[in-house]
Automatic annotation (TrEMBL):
Pathway: Purine metabolism; IMP biosynthesis via salvage pathway; IMP from hypoxanthine: step 1/1. InterPro entries: HGPRT, Hxn_phspho_trans, PRTase-like, PRTase_dom. Keywords: Cytoplasm, Glycosyltransferase, Magnesium, Metal-binding, Nucleotide-binding, Purine salvage, Transferase. Its cofactor is Mg(2+). Residues 7-158 form the Phosphoribosyltransferase domain. It is found in: Cytoplasm. This is Hypoxanthine phosphoribosyltransferase. It comes from Vulgatibacter incomptus. PANTHER family: HYPOXANTHINE PHOSPHORIBOSYLTRANSFERASE, HYPOXANTHINE-GUANINE PHOSPHORIBOSYLTRANSFERASE. GO terms for biological process: GMP salvage; guanine salvage; hypoxanthine metabolic process; IMP salvage; purine ribonucleoside salvage. One of its GO terms (molecular function) is nucleotide binding.
Length: 176
């Protein structure tokens, strides 16, 4: 799909190559461990679907829903849990999968929330990070790409709920 106002940042081939590398590392690091891969909806849905297929382990999957951007390109600063995990994670190794760590507020909220449930370990895999906007430090163990201070859409990421179905990552021109 070619859209006016959206400039390609990473195309489908570049994303697939990076996702494959992340899957290989995760497969190696979690050998012999009971791993639950948790997708943060909605933004992570496409990355999550590709990533779990690149992990060669008998994993479980679960989802959390959060929202804080609404129709804006700036975080409201208030993170709302819109849906919770369907199973307990106590004693399990948990890998949280996000599309983007921007200010870091969503991830900080989720890490604090999930830590109270006493998982065996808790690590973050994010397709993107935006260092220029980071307000709270987050350790991203598995990172796809570090991106410039632009509002990005596609491959799951939205602006006002649109663009999620693009297969590539694009910059929404004029948004920042
Ligand atoms: O680091 P932050 O500044 O907190 O931003 C990152 C979060 O914002 C987006 O979610 P959003 O609230 O837009 O919900 P969505 O996943 O449904 O698009 C994105 O998917 C991350 O969850
Ligand atoms: O750059 C972004 N694009 C889409 N959603 C987002 N949520 C935080 N940052 C972004
Ligand atoms: Mg969003």
């Amino acid at each position: 799909m070619n859209l006016p106002g959206v400039k390609v940042l990473h195309d489908e081939a570049a994303i697939a190559a990076r996702v494959g590398e992340l899957g290989t590392r995760i497969t190696r690091d979690y050998q012999g461990k009971e791993l639950v891969v948790v997708g943060v909806l909605k933004g992570s849905f496409m990355f999550f679907a590709d990533l779990v297929r690149a992990i060669d382990l008998p994993i479980s999957i679960d989802f959390l829903g959060v929202a804080s951007y609404g129709g804006n390109t700036k975080s409201s600063g208030v993170v709302q849990l819109t849906s919770d995990l369907s199973h307990p994670i106590t004693g399990k190794h948990v890998l949280l999968v996000e599309d983007i760590v921007d200010t870091g507020l969503t991830m900080r909220y989720l890490l604090d929330n999930l830590a109270t449930r006493h998982p065996a370990s808790l690590a973050v895999c994010s397709l993107l990070e935006k260092p220029a906007r980071m307000r709270v430090p987050i350790e991203i163990v598995y990172l796809g790409f570090s991106i410039p201070d632009e509002f990005v859409v596609g491959y799951g990421l939205d602006h006002a709920q649109k663009y999620r179905n693009l297969g590539f990552l694009g910059i929404l021109e004029g948004a920042v």
